[in-house]
Write a structure and sequence with these properties.
alpha/beta; globular; four-stranded parallel beta sheet
Length: 136
């Protein structure tokens, strides 16, 4: 017998005040498909379903602005954890991208210690990797 239940099952059992805090993580600096779908997912969870959701983006910029314009609670990960961050969505340097992922993992770990969400939803592979390891 599994202890895992879906969000829909949890939604049916709990009032909005009892529902756990969900963090939606984005690690992209530019707006693409995963960011747009993640924003729609978040808007649905908050608006129609009444969940307590915070979207976390790397830093100030278009991804954070998109979520804020839609009235969603959004936080810049690096600023809120004290790490310096300079977005560069077109960076083709593999070493810099790898170092960025290490920095993302450290910032995500610090954010999780401070905010303790019950659930983390990552909408792209680099977010899933960084936030997944940070949650361990």
């Amino acid at each position: 017998m599994s202890n895992v239940i879906s969000l829909l099952e949890m939604e049916a059992r709990l009032t909005p005040a009892e529902r756990p805090h969900i963090l939606v993580a984005h690690s992209r600096d530019g707006i693409g498909g995963s960011v747009k779908v993640g924003a729609r997912f978040t808007k649905d969870l908050v608006g129609r379903r009444g969940w307590n959701v915070t979207t976390v983006c790397n830093g100030e910029g278009p991804v954070l602005d998109l979520h804020r314009k839609q009235g969603l609670r959004a936080a810049p990960l690096f600023h809120s954890t004290g790490f310096a961050y300079h977005p560069n969505p077109a960076d083709g340097n593999a070493i810099r991208r790898a170092l960025k992922r290490v920095k993302l993992l450290r910032a995500a770990r610090r954010y999780l210690r401070q905010h303790k969400p019950a659930l983390i939803h990552a909408h792209d592979d680099s977010s899933a990797l960084a936030w997944g390891f940070a949650a361990l």
